[in-house]
Amino acid sequence: MVLFYTAYTLTRIILVQDGTGPAFAHADQILGVERYLGLDVELHLNQTLLSVPWLARGANIFYATAHFIVTLGVVVWLYRYRPEHYRWLRTSIMTATGVALLGFWLYPLAPPRFLHSEGFVDPVTALHSLGLYASDASGTLTNQYAAMPSMHAGWSLWCGIVLVRLATQKWAKALGALYPVTTVYVILSTANHYVLDAVAGFALVGGAAWLSWVLYVRHPEPVIVARARIAHAITSRVRRDAGKPAPGPAAAATGGAATRSTYNSGRTSQPA
Fold this sequence. Notes:
Elements: H1 2-14, H2 21-37, H3 42-50, H4 53-81, H5 83-106, H6 123-127, H7 136-140, H8 151-166, H9 170-189, H10 195-218, H11 221-242, H12 250-269
């Protein structure tokens, strides 16, 4: 997970383009679509937040820290206390995060806080508050035009899915339900994202979670057979390189049946 996130962060930086023209042009497109659909609530939320300075400072800190602390905490909790669900949920967030890089590359997007002509104000700058981009150094060490999709929103939805689905305490389930809602409010009101960014982040993580659940938990027959054939091909290659006889052609089918039996027995033995 650490290696993956490091690669993800470095790739985001590499994807920064020399010119910011496309990013601002895309911002105009996003605002145009939202205004047509009646979804352009970002400016109102931004102005309302700035009218309550203590809340704005709290939102700045939340934006800078919760994205990392909460997600990491949920990952560790999941690995430690719900290991039977770790693989499919880990795969889902890694897949969604990897695919998000395509969005950052193909559709660079200037966040609302850069659109001063539209009336947006960055609460970090206006209040001289702590925040993710409070210093010039922190701003240059990341891609500030990687706004579409919003992985702040996507990761918060992933955390919510984990807690609502797997936590046993009611208060933990309630926090899991509230966390994505709070995150979306923060990213919009601090002028770091648009509504469509959050929608895209939710859709990406939701789709990745569903696909991972199907592949890891439902185990459809074609996936089991494909896995067995891949394993057979790898084993045959290793044995051939080592000078050992490869298993017979029936091994893949037998392995697939055995894998199906193992998965089914594992599913029935896992706690609800």
